[in-house]
Automatic annotation (TrEMBL):
SUPFAM superfamilies: P-loop containing nucleoside triphosphate hydrolases (SSF52540). This is DEAD/DEAH-box helicase domain-containing protein. Coiled coil: none annotated. It comes from Naumovozyma dairenensis (strain ATCC 10597 / BCRC 20456 / CBS 421 / NBRC 0211 / NRRL Y-12639). The lineage of its organism: Eukaryota, Fungi, Dikarya, Ascomycota, Saccharomycotina. It holds the Pfam family DEAD. GO terms for molecular function: ATP binding; nucleic acid binding. Residues 491-651 form the DEAD/DEAH-box helicase domain. The gene is NDAI0D05120.
Amino acid sequence: MVLWPILTYYTLNTYRQLVDSIRALSTYSVLYRYLNNGVIPGDSKADEIFFNHVSESWNWTKTMYQRLTTAYMDYNKFNVKVCQPDAVLISGKRFSRTYIQEFYTNMTARFDGNIDKLKHYFLKLWSVKHIADTLLNSGANSNFCESRAAPKDSLFLLFTEKQLSLQMPQTVPEVTLDTDVVTQIVSDMGVCVMWMIYFSATGPYRFPDMVILKYAGNNRNLFIDPETRCLEIITSYSKTRREEYLCKTLDKQTSDYLFYYIFVARAVLKHSMGENYDGMNKDLFQDTNTVAEQYLLRNYLSRSVGNGESEEDWDPVRYSKIVLNSFVFVDCVSHSLMNYSKFAAFMKLYPASISGTSRLSFREMRHGMIKLVREYVKVEGESFEVMNMKERLAGHSAATGQSVYANDVETGTGSDASLEEKYASLINSAWQNWLGLGYGKEREEGGSAVARNACVKKYFSTNGSIKDLFVAGKKLYGKEFRFREGQFDVAVEIYLSGTQIIPIQALPGFGKTALFQIPLVALSYGEQKTVSFVFVPYVCLLSNMKLRLSSCGINCGILKDLFVNGPAVEEKNLFCDVYVGTFNDLGSENFVRLVNNWYNIYQDCILGMIVIDEFHNLETEQSYRGQSFRLIPEINFNLAWKVVVMTGTAGEKGMVKPMKFIGYDKEMCTSMVSNKNRILYFDLVNQIPLKNIVKKFQAFERSTVAETEVEKLVDRFMEYDTKSKVIIVCKEKVTVEK
């Protein structure tokens, strides 16, 4: 049937409507034949497909209704409701950030308690912090660099034998080693670490993906980031049966505990089991439930051991040693990999302060974590691509995105890393920050967390000269070009100084545009690719500004066109030197995300100038269209090379509030001073500007009514000051709103 490929993509309710339509069609068809005594020419056997119980169509209809019933039961059971500020309600149970935080804390405490228990049998059993500082956090970054395409055989080969041997525990003399007790303790420590990974890895992480973690052998999927020394997991989602790889980075605390478990706890386990241990089961995944998981895991196993030989040909000792020295979560109590029942048992015990009836099942927790990530964990300027990546991190196939995870085979995250990889990293970091995971992190209280990623500004200097400005000016205005009084100082300040924020006041007709236009032209002569942005208050001014900038040879585009294919803009698509937009574009989510993630996404392009013309409008028009400006304070303007804000009518005092609005609250001065606590304000007005600016937005049905109201307003001003100057601007409603 041609419908089959289409039905796969229907939502539950849409699918129900379709099946209901089929039922209605069949019902009315049979009724029509019954009422007409079965007389339908050429259709004497039409109703047999529903009366005959072996009919394929009838069986299909019954089967689909049964599946729909089951799906609706699950849908109702896991219908998740958002409960601000940091929780969701699922199956009548509250699942929150504090729920996860306490569960995680319980795991670390239980793990540390198990270390104390092992000290009865072993000496030199150091703390997690000591092992991390001595091995994981020491040494040059280059020691931890390895190819992901052809990694070392074992994580331990990143360290010298001397480093490892100095930290190895030793048995306590005259104390009999109880193998059963030690294996129980190490197994318990493994479950603790699995839960820590589950909460840290973002997603949530599926149990079958954790049991196939390997620190050694072929198909090793555990690595150390050379910079942060956090552990990275290369994983693919088991249900898909396809290798759509993702990189999940653990926070530092979880990384230290996992490293300790692999290095210390597993060494204790191997010592207690002895050299001749031969009890490992051949079916390591006997506790997996679904066919899809069994299929992938069994194939994973066959690719993971033996180097081409069948494990059936191995003797039990060799086979057991290979499994014990490669897989992370081996359980020598059951002589297999960690089984799900042992992992799931912790959900009935933790969080410790939550009553048993209020604790979530594994499936409920999975649905809840997906909802928490969607609702509360935000990266700057949440985009469609970021939302898709959240689903992929949770184990879903995103509607868009690459089918194979674009991972740099040498270092894991290279300069050619895809946007999806960077989004995954941002979400990973945002989730861990929101939960407060890691050492020395304060846990947030209150509302939704907007995770600001650590976007580091790149140093940039034009390495130019004053002559560049004269060359640019002559290109713009001809050979007779000369700077007006005051223009040269501003142009030099923009082009050559280290000043980042430059507020300017100049009257209309002075040549305000030239103040930033000349430095932009000079900037375009350089070898370093830079992209700048110019903003005007209204749409009606947009085309004129673009025309003026384009006339001097600058490649200029419209900012909205930059996002025509979606919020994510590849570096190769930054064709223009300058993009022009309105104040509404300045406050858009797309632009906020673009600026705040600039150097996380773009490697070879400098964020140049951000120019805001008629800057005072950000303050004076708050009452009228403040909703359009609400995201502007979220922009990290400090990432830009220069921020130039201009006004023609507002004086120094009138610039104070809009400057604070965009994050600059230092005192302004007009004298040339080298004081980091003050901002140099360029006042290029020779005549006294307008003292007071009053804007009143009011719509009138008839022009005569407008004239009457304007006369009253003018009279009130003249009563206040007979020397007042009043400028009245009347526009059509459509023009003003744009």
